[in-house]
Every structure is written in structure tokens, then in C-alpha cells.
Amino acid sequence: MTFVDKDLQSIQEARVLAEAARDAQKILNEYPQKALDKIVAKLGHDAQILLPTLLVQEADFSGHGNAEDKITFAQAFFAKCTQELLAEKIVGIISEHQVGVPLGTIVCILPRENVVINLLYACLIAIKSGNALILVPDPATLEVASSAFEAVKEITESPENALSLMETVSQEGLRELTNHSAVNVVIAIDQAAIVDSIAIANPLIFGGGGATPVFIEKSADLAKTAEAIVKSRSFDNGLLPASEQYIISENSVADAAKKALIAAGAYFMSPEEEKRLVAKLDESGSKQRKLDGKKAVEIAEMAGFAVPAGTKVLVSEQNYIYEKNPFSAEQKYPLLTFYLEPDWLHACEKCIDLLNTYRIGQTLAIHSHDEKIIREFALKKPVGRMVVNCAASAAAVGLASEFETSLILGGLTTGRGYKANNISAKDLTYVREIGSSKALDLLTISERKNVDGKAVLEKLLQKLAEE
Fold this sequence. Notes:
The protein has helices at about 5-30, 35-60, 65-85, 115-130, 140-155, 170-180, 190-195, 220-235, 255-265, 270-280, 295-305, 345-355, 370-380, 390-395, 445-450, 455-465, and strands at about 90-95, 100, 105-110, 130-135, 165, 185-190, 205, 210-215, 245-250, 265-270, 315-320, 335-340, 365, 385-390, 430-435. By secondary structure, the chain is an alpha/beta fold. α2 packs antiparallel against α5 (about 140-155). The longest helix has 30 residues, at about 35-60.
């Protein structure tokens, strides 16, 4: 009889992967930007062909999300992302006084949702920046991640072990890998629980998930606002990063905002219906992922109540923020929590409370045409990005905004990681500055050996005065 200790196996795999990636990165470090771009261009192009099949497989395997939405999003995202990456020069000589240098070996802990697109994005930015990459999937998505990884490996012509996938994942193995001396940076995408439970010694970049607060101010165009919120929250059945979850509305427009949301496909649950949904969430004493990535109509049916056929999101109206409220915590299905506040100042405080209470300070959305209020929100909210008058999910990832096109939305303001911006390839390099001065040419090397310091200073000051 053979006994296999999964933790020991995972620890051993972590050590092997880290050391192999370190060796591969030494080879990759010699690749000029043109060679790296050639790999990026091929991967970005060929991935467009492979994505539909991979994304349908992922949706079928997990039962989460909407395959059609995933494909629409992925093709638009990677077309834009690849174009932007190829236009950048971030490795080697950037300018007369700057050299871009890869950070080294990157470990990327993948999320449980949208594994395929996150895996592909991590590979693109790692290759572009000349870094070796170790991908760590959630054990529940290993089959999906493995299939996508094999497809990527067939496309790319990178050094052996420059891209690798951890197959035996345990907490002990993750601790070993993320703290290994051969690893230079750890990226964790929407895995707050892992980050909070493992003391990661290496530099950490945290990419937050969803649960974006959105404020509806009285000057907003309510019909457009409601359409944007409902479309964003229901897209891919609530699985896109930065999708809206909390609505904070001024009292003076609350009734009109509700009507606009209902017209856009929102359904406000009754207290009894909310109880049924909470009971479904709390089955077996723990929250069940079987609701994640399901359509609003399906979720209502699972909870035992009926909603109109065109319902796109479920809405729970709440008065207060308290941690035991299941609708206040981040949910990965099309649910919105609706709060009322008497004015924008109270709404401002409510947003801050939500961001701080649940450590979700990644993105904030506001719908308003009052420049003063928009400016006050921008100045005071503890977030990495603020979206104004558009769908939060599309804007936050850079598809409908000036933000960097990225799936990794820096979460420094959640208290995790050291980056707050949209993470791209240039965040995986550092710039070596090359300094020079005409003053250094005043003396030759031979003259510097036996020279009077006072005389040098006087000569230098005279030269500077002449210039």
C-alpha cells in the first residue's frame, strides 16, 4: 500500500518549480524586447482562436458564468491588451538614461472564477516583461487551468520552465512557494483568504475582486445609470472584476432610481424572499458556491421564489451596514444591495464605511454631473480607481476608460499588496536609471588620483557658474 502526503508532495513540487523557474529566467533575461514581443504577438493572436473553445469548456465544467459573455469580453479585452503591450518598450534600453529590468520569477495565484482569461493575461505580461512565471490554480479549477495552460504552452516558444503550472496545491505548498528565495514577486488575483492566511514574505501584488460601491447622485441621468449598473452587474452572471454590488442613492431620487433599475431588469426582493435566499446561502452551515455565476432567475428558483422572466439582477434593500448581513459581504452572482442616504455627504461616509468594513477598496463608481461632488469623492475615497458615469466592470479593466487594460486591479487600498493601479507588464520590471554629469568630465581619471579637494570644488563651481 502506498501513502502520499499531499502537503509534502506540494512542498516538494513548490521547491522544484521555483528552482527551475529561476534557471529559466536567467535564459529569458537575455531575450531582447523584440524576441519577447514575437512570443507575445503569437500568443495574443492564436489565443483569439482558442478562447471560444476554452471558455465554453470552463463554463461547462464549473457551471459558473455565461460562456457567450465570457467570449465577448475576452476577445475585446485581449485584442486591446495585446495591441497595447506590443506598443510598449519596457525591457532593455528604454531611453538614453533608462534600462528596463525584469523582476525575476513571478508566482501568480489564480482566482476561482474566469481562470482561462486570468491565466492567459498573466502569461502575456510575464513574457512581455521577460519574467519566468509559475501559475497556481485553485484545486477546484485544476482541470480547467491545465487545459488552458497546455494550449498556451503549445503556442509559446519560450525557454523550458519559463512558464509552469503547479499541480499539487495545498496551503503548505503555497507557503513554501510564495516564500521561496528563488521567487521575486507574488501576484494573488481575488484570493484574499489565501493572502490573509499565509504570511507571504516576498513582495505581493494583490488583485481585488468585485463588490464595487456605486453612488447615484441626484444630478445623474437615472435611466442611463440604471442601464449601466444592471448590465455591468449581470454580465457573465456577476463574475467580472469590479462589478457593482452596493448602490447608495440619495433619498430625493431613490424612488425614481428604483423605477429605472426595475425597468433595466432589476428585481427588488421582499423580506420573505430575502429570507429564502439567505437560507439557501447558509445551507450546511456555510456559504455555497453553487449560487456563484448563476443567472438571477435561476438563483430565485433555487431559493424557492419566482421573478419575472427578464430579471437580470436581484436587489436587497438595506438600512445599515453590519457584518452578519449576508448581502453586505461580497457575492459572486448578480445581486445588488440598495442603501438610502439623505444627501451626498452621508452617501460619501456610507461608501467609506463599506470600503473599510469589507476591505474592498479597489474600485468606486459614481453617477453624477456635479463636478464638485465628483471631485470630493475622488479626493476622499480609499480606493485605487474611481469610475464616473459608466459601467464599473468595463471601465475598471480599461475597456471603457483611460485605465491600463488589465485583469489585475491593484488592491493596496484593501490593505493587501503594494500596488493600487491596474497591473500590467511594466509593473513586473524595474527601471535602472543611468546618470551622467558634465562635471565628471572636468577631471580625467589620472588627475583624480592626486588632486586637492578645494581646488576641485572651486573648478566645479566655476564651471557651473559659466553654464
